Every structure is written in structure tokens, then in C-alpha cells.
Amino acid sequence: MEMENEDTALKQSILDVHITEAGYESGHSTIQSIRIQVYPGELVGIIGPNGAGKSTTIKTMLGLLEHAEYEIEIGGKGRYAYIPEQPVFYEYMTLWEHLDLAAAAYEMEEEDFVARAEELLVRFGMDHVRDDLPASFSKGMRQKMMLMIGFLASPDVYIVDEPFIGLDPRATKDFLQLLDDERRHGAGVLMSTHVLDTAERICDRFILIAAGRSAAEGTLEEIRAVAELPNASLFDCFDILTS
Ligand SMILES: Nc1ncnc2c1ncn2[C@@H]1O[C@H](COP(=O)(O)OP(=O)(O)OP(=O)(O)O)[C@@H](O)[C@H]1O
């Protein structure tokens, strides 16, 4: 579902995060005043230099920071999937068992789980390793396992931390295709990434974080206006706005 910009103000966001401040120690905030809204069908990119606070923003949203003042609202059924950059897995469980465990956590019906899991295994070219242990997988295969777990229950919101680094071009294409399908059904996606040329191509809007604050946000056009660089790439705007 594509939306015009004018519409967004009228529609209800599917994800609304308002971080007043958050940090790793009390009395010392790492990020301040960050507002993120994602509308149904949108893909919003969080970008920013190393150490700017992107992961801290995501950790805050997930409720992982003890010292945080923030509010988060998720629309629809309130379901989200977090797809981490570093795969997390149980050493003695096969790929299929990981999917099964996730389905139990999402309280999926067995029939829905099996149909969706089979579809995802084929889509990611992982059907032949469904009964293997992830310890024997390559980095990209482990990352695909994380993506499959994320996509399993078709949540309302996807929070994806740097998905592009370990994936080959085919897997990247499959991943983006699946995200598009989910967005057409109204899901919202928030994605942090350093791969700015891909981000420029696929994201509807961007939130540029620098030194723990939102330095610019909006569509590429709006970011260009803030950077005073008409026609520039996202990379060039990023460079100007973070230097
Ligand atoms: N566990 C931690 N304990 C204390 N400080 C931390 C911790 N993790 C990150 N920081 C600090 O918080 C700041 C923001 O880091 P964060 O990991 O959010 O950046 P990032 O934008 O995700 O960077 P990158 O692109 O390198 O992943 C940095 O100054 C970092 O040193």
C-alpha cells in the first residue's frame, strides 16, 4: 500500500516511539529527544554514523535499557518482530525447531505455522538445511534464519537492525520482496542501516541520528532541503549533516 505524504498526517501510525532520553547509566543520557513514527505500509530508515545512537534507540524501544524515559505505541494487534543484526540461536536445535519454538511463542496455529514455515524455507533457499543445526550454517544462512523467524507470524511492525551486511544479492532481493508483501498488508518497517544506496532506493522516509539526537528527518527531498543539497544522494546529505 503506497501512501502520499499528505495522507500520513491523517492516518494513524502503526508505530509511534517518543524517547525523551535513554542511556546506559543513570544520570548520563546517550540519546535524547527522538521521535519515530511509522505509518502502515511504510519503510522508515534509521541512519547515522558509528556510535550515533541507532542501536541504543532500538534497544530503548525494545525495553532493554534500564535508564530510559520513553513511550511506545504499536497499532494493529500490537505485535512486532525484532530482527537482530547478530543472529541468536540455540546450539542444539535445528532450523525447523527454531521456527517451531518461535511459532509457539507467537501462539500460531500448527497449520498456519507449517504453511508459512514451508513457504519461507523455499523463499530463502533453506529447505535443504531445515533439519540441520545453525552452528553448521554460514553467517548469511544464520541471518536468513533470523529473518524467517521474524516473518513467521506476520506482525504489525518489523524492527530490523542492519539486514544487508551478511546477505547475498539474491537473499537481499527475497528479503525486500517479503517486506513489500508485508507492507502491502499494512505492516510498518523500521530499519537501521549503513548501506545508504540501498536505503535511498527502498525507504520512504529517513531519520538521521547524530550524537544521540535526531539531526534530520523526512523523505529524501526533505533531507536534501535540510542539507541544502538539491539532487544530492542520501550519502552526500548524510556526509554534510553529520560532519
Ligand atoms: N552497552 C553499552 N554500555 C555503555 N555505553 C554504550 C553501550 N552500547 C553503546 N554505548 C555507547 O552509546 C553510544 C551510541 O552507541 P550505539 O551502539 O547506539 O551507536 P550506533 O549508532 O548503533 O553505532 P554503530 O553504527 O557503530 O552500530 C556510543 O557512544 C557507545 O559507546
Automatic annotation (TrEMBL):
InterPro entries registered for this protein in UniProt: AAA+_ATPase, ABC_transporter-like_ATP-bd, ABC_Transporter_VariousFunc, P-loop_NTPase
Superkingdom in the source lineage: Bacteria
PROSITE patterns attached to this UniProt entry: ABC_TRANSPORTER_2 (PS50893)
CDD domains: ABC_DR_subfamily_A (cd03230)
Keywords: ATP-binding, Nucleotide-binding, Transport
GO molecular function: ATP binding; ATP hydrolysis activity
Gene3D superfamilies recorded: P-loop containing nucleotide triphosphate hydrolases (3.40.50.300)
Stretch forming the signal peptide: none
A Pfam family matched in the record: ABC_tran
UniProt KW Nucleotide-binding keyword: yes
Domain named ABC transporter: residues: 14-236
Protein name: ATP-binding cassette domain-containing protein
Lineage: Bacteria, Bacillati, Bacillota, Bacilli, Bacillales
